[in-house]
């Protein structure tokens, strides 16, 4: 009976013929013989004076100014607070909507200021509407009560 495999080594014998075990305490040999055409590496670093040139300094980043707060948003908030006999409330609503549109397109800050100005402006307009309704109700009530027979 013939096999493609060689016969196993004898018990305790060398696994490969011609191989000698390295002496005890020495590192194992490199598994491949060194290439004769290639010189061994001279060491961990190149010799002094033969370092590659350093990298050039990085290019500076362009100085972009961060977009500031939208001025109409500030104006909307101020006019919403200082309602100025309801004219400020109307202007706060107008400036607030324009500011939100500008902030959406220009990515400026102040969105919260514009929304606060809008809220205060609408509250002022609601109070104006209640005031007008109250004046009309009192006016029609008092004029109906003074009519005589």
Characteristics:
149 residues, 0% strand
Radius of gyration: 46 Å
Query: What's the overall average pLDDT, rounded?
Result: 79
* Shape designation: elongated
Main beta sheet: strand number and arrangement?
Answer: none
Helical fraction: 40-55%
Query: Low-confidence runs (pLDDT<50, min 5 residues)?
Result: none
- Determine the strand fraction and express it as a percent band: under 5%
Q: What is the terminal separation in angstroms? A: 142 Å
Q: What structural category do the secondary elements indicate?
A: mainly alpha
**Number of extended strands:** 0
In DSSP terms, counting alpha (H) and pi (I) runs of 4 or more, how many helices? Answer: 3
Q: What series of H and E elements makes up the topology?
A: HHH
């Amino acid at each position: 009976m013939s096999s493609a495999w060689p016969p196993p080594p004898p018990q305790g014998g060398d696994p490969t013929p011609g191989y000698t075990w390295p002496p005890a305490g020495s590192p194992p040999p490199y598994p491949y013989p060194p290439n004769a055409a290639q010189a061994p590496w001279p060491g961990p670093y190149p010799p002094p004076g033969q370092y590659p040139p350093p990298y050039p300094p990085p290019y500076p980043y362009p100085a972009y100014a961060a977009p500031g707060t939208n001025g109409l948003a500030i104006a909307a908030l101020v006019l919403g607070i200082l309602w100025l006999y309801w004219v400020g409330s109307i202007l706060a609503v107008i400036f607030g909507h324009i500011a939100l549109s500008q902030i959406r397109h220009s990515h400026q800050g102040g969105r919260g200021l514009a929304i606060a100005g809008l809220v205060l402006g609408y509250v002022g307009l609601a109070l104006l509407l209640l005031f007008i309704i109250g004046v009309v109700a009192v006016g029609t009530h008092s004029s109906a009560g003074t009519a005589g027979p």
